[in-house]
Fold this protein.
Amino acid sequence: MKSIPLILMGCGGVGRQLLQHIVSCRDIHALNYGVRLRVVGVADSKSLLSVPDIFTTELDDHSVDEICRLKSNGSSLSSLTSYGDYQVFSNSETITNITEVASHLVRSTGLAVVDCSASSDTIGILQKVAEMNGCIVLANKKPLTSSMEDYDKLVLHPRRLRHESTVGAGLPVIMSINRLLSSGDTIHRIVGSLSDPRDDLGGMDVARKALIVARLLGQRLELDSIKVESLYPAEMGPNAMSVEDFLANGVSQLDNSLADRVEKAASNGNVLRYVCVIEGSRCEVGIQELPKNSALGRLRGSDNVLEVYSRCYSEQPLIIQGAGAGNDTTAAGVLADILDLQDLFT
Ligand SMILES: NC(=O)c1ccc[n+]([C@@H]2O[C@H](COP(=O)([O-])OP(=O)(O)OC[C@H]3O[C@@H](n4cnc5c(N)ncnc54)[C@H](OP(=O)(O)O)[C@@H]3O)[C@@H](O)[C@H]2O)c1
């Protein structure tokens, strides 16, 4: 049985779901792939819980359940100081220990460091892991949307980096683009609705996803150079208007101001969609008029849709569509990424 040791950074909705998927897929992984995922450490924003012997032991399934229960109650891992034989490191010790564990394991069996946090603070650790030739799996978009300098350090060994869930959650967006690129196809335009309306009316989350895709296509862009049209004006921003006021009064004002644009688009046989457009050196996020009978035009509900136009998909684009958010599908995407790395482990 091949063992893949891993450290998980981030134990929120996605991280906890990932731990649960790992436990519930043990039989499938063993029978179909001859693989066992061995969780040797879990970190939240303040602490790292790790096993006493990183080479031979792992967090057992009961402990994984306990960690998930504790984290879903809003507690910190640091409250587990006396839990079993495990060690708990806090604050700066956490970073030192993740790096130490990584350096030992990368040199012996290999290690996957999985980032399911929503923080930029993990970037330093990830860069060290990349430098040591370790494997990295990301749901967190921030490490890939930091400066180009940080990005180059992270993608040092592209085969060892997986980040499918950073764009479109579990949808095969990154994989599909990589397959087109590796086959020599030329992608000339990507238009995508990649927002989750519950947490992204300002457009920055979509801008991060657009940046990840644009950089994959070879654009050397910084986040602040992406043109982003926010769906609300500054005077309705989080610092100027409460959520209650925004929902009660702000949204209806925004509806009124968009009504004219909707009407004009309809008169052209089009609809308005909030999308990212990546084309040549252009990368922008905002409202666009799109044909009513295109995949994006037909979009209903909260699905994500990506239209990819390339040499092979010129008239009719390649369409990738489905749920683009949710802990379950996001964690499933992360898990599939980890399994995809199995050939790199001894
Ligand atoms: N949910 C989705 O539908 C979805 C879809 C695609 C991508 N994603 C991405 O997946 C990531 C996780 O999302 P989520 O919904 O699970 O977020 P979340 O519930 O806010 O959880 C974030 C977790 O990260 C931990 N954390 C913060 N800083 C950390 C650090 N420096 N080192 C280690 N852990 C740290 C937090 O610790 P504390 O518990 O101590 O606060 C928390 O456990 C995000 O980057 C998100 O953008 C989510």
The radius of gyration is 22 Å. Residues 243-267 form the longest helix (25 residues).
